[in-house]
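ok trying again, last paste got cut off:
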Amino acid sequence: MTAFESLQEKLSATGLYDISQGTLIYAELMAYAEGLQIVYDILEELLRECFVPTAESYGLLRRGKLIRHLNLDHTLPGKRQTILLTLSLLQTDYTLAGMEKVRDSFNAHGSFSVSADPLKVIFTCTDELSAVQRQRLEEEMAKQMPCWLPFELET
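nice, full thing came through this time. structure:
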């Protein structure tokens, strides 16, 4: 419903105004509606950007900065999935089995293995990474790994 339709519906229900086209009250309502429509559109966009599943621009950008996560998939659905996966990580996910969920939150592909001597987790990444992406992925994944378990990235 547009701002004008909303105003017209509410004022017509009172029976106090003749809101037919060509009247002064109609023209006045049209002028008010122009300004209110801007506010309606801003509020609609704000509501959409507040929630990750519906956000399309600054909502995803700000959430991404807040969680400071590397995202190898730069598409809109990829960004959205990365943020949702990251926000869904629980304390219980920081196990070897849960590390796959952490991996998925980066939109990275590969497998985990554990080295016994010395004890460490090795993530073998199958994605083609630039040197900068590799460094960022290693830094960001290391932050998400259990602090007692060393982490290594192989490409």
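cool. Residues 6 and 33 are 9 Å apart (CA to CA). Helices lie at 3-14, 24-49, 58-67, 76-87, 99-105, 131-144.
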